[in-house]
Amino acid sequence: SAREREPWLIATSLPGGAKETKAVLAAYRKRMSIEENFRDTKSEYYGFGLERARSRSTERYSVLLLVNALAIFVAWLFGKAARSEGIDRGYQANTVRSRAVLSCVFLGLRVISRGDIQMTTTKLRQLRAIFRDPELAVAA
Q1: Residue 137 pLDDT more than 80?
Q2: What residues form the membrane-spanning segments (predicted)?
Q3: pLDDT at position 2
Q4: What local confidence, expressed as pLDDT, does residue 95 receive?
Q5: In whole angstroms, what is the distance from residue 120 CA to residue 81 CA?
Q6: Nearest residue to 70 (alpha-carbon basis) of 107, 102, 101, 105
């Protein structure tokens, strides 16, 4: 896909032309986004470390997932704010400066932990544009 950072090699048994190819790429893009969200939820390094939750109660785990979803949303907002202000490059390895390599959630967690952005009402208003344009939410 032209907007992806690395070339994809995707094999499918589905017949078809350009329309079907676009549908397969869209499904794969969605799947990769879901996989990254699982990583952000489960991983102690990349996200919130729910893999360490030892609860055996379904109800308690449901509450943990809800709290986690809210925390991921806040971290994502901070990550988007960092990108909009251009401070995300300071968090990346020096070897890659031409494109974003960190997920918004991972970046947001780092920004929050270092206190590099103060979330103001003005910044929240600027970020509202993301919710009006789904392509902006998916990008980055």
Answers
A1: no
A2: 61-79
A3: 45
A4: 66
A5: 10
A6: 105
How far is it, in rounded angstroms, from Cα 124 to Cα 38? 26
CB 41 within 8 A of CB 48: yes
Check: CB of residue 29 under 8 Å from CB of residue 134: no
Using the Cα atoms of residue 34, residue 42, residue 63 and residue 80 in order, give the sign of their dihedral: negative
- pTM of the prediction? 0.66
9-18, 49-58, 61-70 — most confident range: 61-70
What is the C-alpha separation between 70 and 80, in angstroms, rounded? 15
Tell me if residue 26 falls in helix, strand or coil. Answer: helix
Q: Hey, how many other C-beta atoms are within 10 angstroms of the C-beta on 28? A: 15
